[in-house]
Write the structure tokens for this entry.
Amino acid sequence: MERSLYDQLGGAAAVDAAVDVFYRKVLADGRINSFFDDVDMDRQILKQKAFLTMVFGGPASYTGKDMRTGHAHLIKRGLNDSHVDAVIELLGASLRELGVAEPLIAKVAAIAESARADVLNR
Amino acid sequence: MPAIHYEGNVFPLAENESVLDALLRNGVLAPHSCKAGSCGSCLMRAFEGSIPARAQQGLKESWKAQGYFLPCVCHPASDLSIRAVDASEQVGASIAALDRLSDDVMRVRLQCDAPLEFHAGQYVTVVRENGLARSYSIASLPDAPQLELHVRRVATGRMSAWLHEQARPGDRVSLRGPFGECFYVPGKEDQPLLLVGTGTGLAPLYGVLQDALRHGHRGPIHLVHGALHRRGLYLVDDLRRLGEHHTHFGYVPTVLNGTSSEGLTVGAIDQVVLERFPKLNGWRGFVCGDPDVVKSLKKRLFLSGMASREIHADAFLPSAQAAS
């Protein structure tokens, strides 16, 4: 049997390695960083870890309902497709920087894509 | 709704009500201050029932195991039996000396009745005999004969008013704690350290600095202390002298308003940090002081390349009463 995506990426250690790289890109990106202005960094890092674990195909701690309720207040502030695109783009750039192979990056992007409808409450 | 069992009373919780608010609503004189799960003033102990993780966040493992928790951020899913922290769980102390470090900062030296185990940079809750409780960072080292706190005079602050204007050597208080994660852990002696704080955020940083030097830290250590005006800075001469004795220690006194005379840097503290320390990959950071400044400095350090797990911070939250 083929190893799971999560194992191929390196599991929890890969999440730990990716979280700073990814969150730093998010905070530095003028398209989306205003959504993160008031949030506590430590709590946000934990949420980013849960997000990365999910898109890495790991033990899911986020449900579709969590995604909906967790982003509802951001939709009121204008969260839309362009912001989801930006997050998926930065996710790919982070993994590329960490030396992850393109086919695996494509699989991660596909999982992130599958959360779009929940995040945007459609 | 779940209920709180306390000294033979049963207090049902209202919707979204914290354990602390339920106690206060029912007339219990529970000490408290920040009401945000940070200062530790409201610490209590549960002996039956399940404590939500959030109510023990930041407490040391041995305390969690003994059922200590913070009622101000405790929203239990089921009944909880609790009691106040009693005198045997606090350390008594006498005020040994009071001396003014600046217009609005008093150095309070305390002689503890029994040794208090802590790391320099952590904070303790000072409890007066009337139950008033406030938390202050420890600026001294664990083996120093007395505990040193820096207390800023807060305009409507009851504890700081007492310590600044009425307290005298010999007066008694109790101490609870320690709390907080802003302290030096020995190891990685060559790692550069950046200590940044505003106001009495200097107290824990001063503790961290002394602890790092005492452990023989060899990497560069930089301390950026910010204040609105020159008179808000304190321990300036002590820190300059430390810089002369330890060539790997650099002190950057910073003011928001003023002129760059007397070796002062002028500017907003996060800008000063950005200009002086643009690349922080591999560094360890300590950030203390005003909550908004702490929040923006944490982000600044992180964006400059410091790993999130290397950033140690304590925000000084005002007491909820003083703020309202």
